[in-house]
Amino acid sequence: MSVHTRNSFPFQNNWRLRPLVIALSLAFFSSAISSALAEEVEFNLDNMDISDRENIDMSQFSRAGYMMPGQYDMAIKINDNESPTEEVTFLPSEHDENETVACLTPKMMAGFGLKKSWLDKVTYWNNEKCARLDIMPGIILRPDLASSTLYMSVPQAYIEYQTANWDPPSRWDEGIAGFIADYNTNFNYSSPAQGSESSELSGNGVVGVNAGPWRMRAFWNGTHYTANNTKTSTFNWNQYQAFRAIKPWGAKLIIGQNDLASDVFENARYVGASLISDDSQLPPNLRGYAPEVRGVAKTNAKVTISHAGRVLYESQVAPGPFIIQDLSDSITGTLDVKVEEQDGSIQTFQVETASVPYLSRPGQVRFKAAVGQTTDDRFHLQNERLMAGEFSWGISNGWSLLGGGLSSGKYHAASLGAGRDLLSFGALALTATQSYAKLPNNQTRSGGSYSLSYSKRFENYDTQVTFAGYRFTEKSYLSLNQYLEASRKHLVIRNNAANKQTYTVSLNKQFRTLGVSAFLNYNYQTYWNRQATSRWNMSFARYFDVGNFKNVSFNLSAYRAQNSGIQDDGVFLSLNVPFGTSSGLNINAQNSDAGQINSLSWYNRMDERNSYRLGANVDRQQRSAYSGYYTHTGDNTLTNYSASYKPGQYRSAALSMQGGLTATAHGAALHRTIIPGGTRLMLDTEGISDVPIKSSGAATHSNKFGKAVLADVSSYIRNQAHLDINQLNDDIEAESPVLQLTLTEGAIGYRRFRLIKGQKLMAVIRLSDGSYPPFGASVLSKGRETGIVDEMGSVWLSGVNPEMLMDVRWNGNIQCQITFPKVLPIDESGETNLLLPCTEKE
């Protein structure tokens, strides 16, 4: 007996393996001919070098594509797109009992992405359980028992529209029931030279339950602050809601506490229900833009992004420019950004979320409708009912009609506009909104607001105007929030401090001949009775080679912010010199109203899980400071550590951890995450621990129960997860190392890798009467074929473990069972076979 890894197979024993190779060749030949013809095959045994020609079982090779009647767990692969593993029943054909066919149930057929017009024509047999596919000529089914896969070749004419990474709604997976608990925590410690030390623990997260297509979510945040022997704590559950996808309408239904998130009116909060067209359900080329936040951190800093008081994003960043691109494209309105530096200083600014003009394709209607009761920012109910609706109707090729209405108590607003696809000149939309409100003391206010938005990509100039917008608001115009505040506090509005004019521009430009990319964002806001606010930031980046140094980069970032008459300017210069592919040197210079800092840092990506940055800087007063930043991407958490020290000034440290728990009927696992509450995929490795799995980024490993969760997977986009074969242990084999699926928003997907773990060895199987199983008999482990018997009972087996049982099958039935000893012999020479008696199965 001998145990072999895949790199040490004993080819030197050719005399022993020759019959086995013949049997494996027959299996391969059978698979090959099954895809070409479905005829019975007769083998000339005289050409085979087998001593006992009477003791041969060719039943599984004699008919192309033949499967023994029964039920099989099989992955279904349609034109290279994989569907979930199903229990597929093979039955004798209704036309020929000597042939078997796969029974495709109505549920399976509905998930194959077939056009409804063809799906409606399909008839069923076997008590309406099995589809007849003859209505669609050209569909070919090919079962492969070795890989437990049913291959389906389907002509494109029968399939709904799909792209390389987008599936039609019929193939979207709603996931399984389960519980989630995600968190994002930050701990900051500061000890100034003058003053007392302080610490703050802050966090936010989501707790939720999935049931069928429904997702229930509860959002929380909290802080615990300690300074001067004083402790203060806050904790809030700040939003509860349930939502689900309405796939036939391309829409999303939300019930509970929600933001109006209007494309026509200003944002407001309410408790109730809404039904909205969901752009994320569209193919990627038809979707809008996700918001992006850019800024510059002077030191190790904590960045917090919130919307209407709810924290959307919170994380640590290293010194220098940062870009936050992990926000949902469903967010509209104004984002509040707070940058807390480790030297104690704080930056705050706002970012207007850009959106493309609210246009629709010809015949398409996009809509948003909401009904409920208004609330304040903390979702405390107010005595005002809310009804709102808006639409964008593609009335012709290029033109869209826009409009909507909003009513709450004694406040009413209506909006009407038009949009035009200007083809090579971009897209343009113009809207006018009129409000009417009756305030306390019978004061009446009526006014208008007018907006113009434009988006265009100039292909010939490598320029993209992501968004350009202008809005003018009359002094007498009231938003819903202004009306609610006045009603709640019984105010009489005489001097309206509301918005007057808003300008927003976001521009990208590529200078390909120079190797330069440029970005510009500009926001300017005027008010009726106070000073204007503005912020612009721009960046230039260039990559080039210098001698042996490749991909050297130069970055220039600058910003100006004005608020309440106070101006803050900043410029940041950075030169990055890579040393190899994973480390490099950063030289930075930063100048702002807060002072000047020149810094030098070294970064190193040790592996796909760990990286660090060490830096030193000096300010205008020649005072030095030192900092360190370390990131670890673990299976259970994403962790950032940072520390700063400035002699005679301060010392500080910070820690952030992002992770979660996902629990289902199949099991539970801790996992890392970035955006709490998002879509995720639970992967089952059949009880095998420490199996490396990759999707994007660093691999994650299955826990001791054989479960792993990939969080932050995309919704309505085809996701792929695969085993990291290079890191897989030699005693593990996978039938299919790659899985694909498309999940709806917030789903907990579930897939199982079909794995076999154990030794590989040569054995001899002997029956109770001293004879051997026939040549071609199959050895099965949990229903999976792990070996084919050659002459004299010899068989090469994989997935062997002590005391395990395997079945031996021939003539279509399980005939006997083999049991392995407690201690498996090890013989690297390959000279010895393990003798295994085969007894009747109890």
Main β-sheet description = 24 strands, antiparallel, barrel
Q: What is the overall pLDDT average?
A: 84
Helix content class = under 10%
CATH superfamily of the domain at 14-61 and 757-839, by name, is: PapC, C-terminal domain
Helical/strand content category? mainly beta
Could you please describe the fold and organization of this structure?
The structure is a single chain. The protein is mainly beta and 842 residues long. It has a domain at 14-61 and 757-839: Immunoglobulin-like (Sandwich), CATH 2.60.40. Helices cover 5% and strands 55% of the residues. The chain contains four helices and 54 strands. It has a 24-stranded antiparallel barrel. A hairpin with a 4-residue loop joins strand 25 (444-458) and strand 26 (463-473). The chain is globular, with a radius of gyration of 33 Å. The two termini are 27 Å apart.
In brief, what are we looking at here?
Belongs to the fimbrial export usher family. This protein is mainly beta and 842 residues long.
